[in-house]
Amino acid sequence: MAQPTDGPADVLQQAITHHRAGRLQQAEQIYRSVLAREPGNTEAMHLLGMAAFQTGHHDPAAELIAKAVAASPDNPKYHYNLGRVRRAQSKLEDAAESFQRTIELAAGTADAHSNLGAVLAQLDRAEEAIASLHKAIELEPRDESAHTNLGHILQNQGKFDEATDYYRRAISLRPGFLEPLYNLGRIQLKTGKPAQALESLDQCLAEQPFDRRALAWRAVALSELGRTDEAAATVDPERDVAVLRLDQSSPDADPATLNHALVEELADHPALEWEPAATTTRGGSQIGKLLNDPSEAVETLEWHLRATIDGHLAGLEGDASPAYMRAIPRSYILHMWATVLSEQGHQLTHNHPAGWLSGVYYVRVPGITASADDHAGWIEFGRPRDDVPTSFEPQVRLIAPEEGMVALFPSYLFHRTIPFAGPDKRISIAFDLCPKR
User: Fold this and answer.
1) Has residue 252 got a pLDDT over 90?
2) Does the CA dihedral 236-237-238-243 come out positive or negative?
3) Fewer CB within 10 Å, N side or C side of the chain?
4) Does the pLDDT of residue 369 top 70, yes or no?
């Protein structure tokens, strides 16, 4: 710990030494002591924000670094790191603005061009993104992320040969890099080469045995090759989706009372964002990161969800589930977000690469107006995304949602919801169980 007689620069350097060595708690303590003595020390403010960012506390990180930017508006490093935090918060327009300001102040910052290109791609500004990524590669030819992100844009444009070239360059720069390997497998599936896709996806899984995206698409490749039994060893919605009721082991677990409180809080919440960028929500709004500053109702739901999940996991030990589901995390954190759908609202087909086990809790499920589709409003598991053409009929499972119902499933399992007709809003809370590292 810093001594009282140390000068401010010496104290700050001690914190930086701890920070670089990964001793973030010690670094944070010293940054706070510096700021207690010098509230206007922008470097301590910025670095405390970065420590918060590195520990997953994105909101306080953004607040601290934004203060540093306001105090030192011509410091490109502060703008760049604020852009990184904004990107992690999914505030993509703000992130793009921060990266652009970094470039205005320091045009030769290759990482700023690379990150700007990635964010612009997420905002569907493809041509601007391509220009930024080419500039990043011009400045730093060995930037594997810029090559990979160019591959993503070209893949989305249907330019599969060019995308493949960029992915292969990225892999040559960083052998075993999962992102281009995985996407190379997807392109091979899209172009009718399931055997090659299987080889690429197996390389991904050799690097990271339980990579969620690779597991999902590997099952598709196996099915395309007619190896359905092997595919079913990974993807079997009847086996792998658990439909449960919320744990009611304590007096405050009455779902009707809890759901009423959640509806009151979420239905017209000021933080609701309509069809957020880089999500699969259509015809609805979302609130992310419910557990960052949880209300009493959200905290109550978290407690009962954990009890429900833990009971389910206890039943998996030693059963006949796939190896993935037997690799139960010793401890985990939950990430939760709410979705409020209007009429015809739905979720496009997706999975949850960041999770290990995922789920959805139904808060409000109003009556559905009769339609030609008897499954309107249901959730469907097992059908791959339609951007990869397939020749087989997938095994799917359709489930009618009910208030108070919890559906749990492996995070790699593709799922979607079917649009519904009716004037009332539907509210659900999705969550990912993420193993603690």
Assistant:
1) no
2) positive
3) C
4) no
Report yes or no on 322 lying in a domain: yes
Is-contact 277 122, C-beta < 8 A? Answer: yes
Q: What Å distances lie between residue 156 and 121, 316, 325, 342, 375, CA to CA?
A: 10, 39, 32, 29, 30
Q: Which residues contact 399 (CB under 8 A, 6 or more apart)?
A: 241, 243, 378, 379, 380, 381, 407
**Same domain membership, residue 207 and residue 338:** no
Sequence-separated contacts (24+) of 388-395 with Cβ below 8 Å: 388/186, 388/189, 388/190, 388/217, 388/220, 389/190, 389/192, 390/220, 390/223, 390/224, 391/224, 392/223, 392/224, 392/228, 394/223, 395/232, 395/235, 395/236, 395/237, 395/238
DSSP per position, 343-363 = EEEEE-SB--TT-SEEEEEEE
Question: What domain range includes position 426?
Answer: 238-435
Last residue of a domain, one of 206, 233, 260: 233
- According to DSSP, residue 407 is labeled E
Cβ neighbours of residue 352 under 8 Å, at least 6 residues apart?
212, 358, 411, 412, 432
Whether residue 9 is predicted with pLDDT greater than 90 in this model: the reply is no
State how far the Cα of 407 lies from the Cα of 279, in Å rounded to an integer.
20
Average pLDDT over residues 288-302: 92
Top pLDDT among 11 and 138 is at: 138
Task: Report the 10 Å Cβ neighbour count for 344.
Answer: 13
- The alpha carbon of 61 is separated from its chain's Cα centroid by a whole number of angstroms, namely 18
Report the range of poorest mean pLDDT among 26-30, 205-209, 372-376: 372-376
Number of domains in the chain: 2
Question: What CA–CA distances, in Å, run from 236 to 20, 63, 218, 232?
Answer: 45, 44, 14, 5
CATH number of the domain that residue 282 is part of: 2.60.120.620
Instruction: Tell me if 199 is assigned to some domain.
Output: yes
Q: How does strand 281-287 pair with strand 273-274? A: antiparallel
- Give the per-residue pLDDT at 320: 57
Which pLDDT belongs to residue 421?
Answer: 85
Q: Which residue has tokens 């609130």?
A: 287
Q: What is the rounded distance in angstroms from the CA atom of residue 326 to the CA atom of residue 20?
A: 36
Say yes or no to pLDDT of 318 above 70.
no
185 and 266 in a common domain: no
In this structure, what token pair is assigned to residue 280?
């699969």
Query: Looking at the whole model, is its pTM more than 0.90?
Result: no
d(CA 313, CA 309): 6
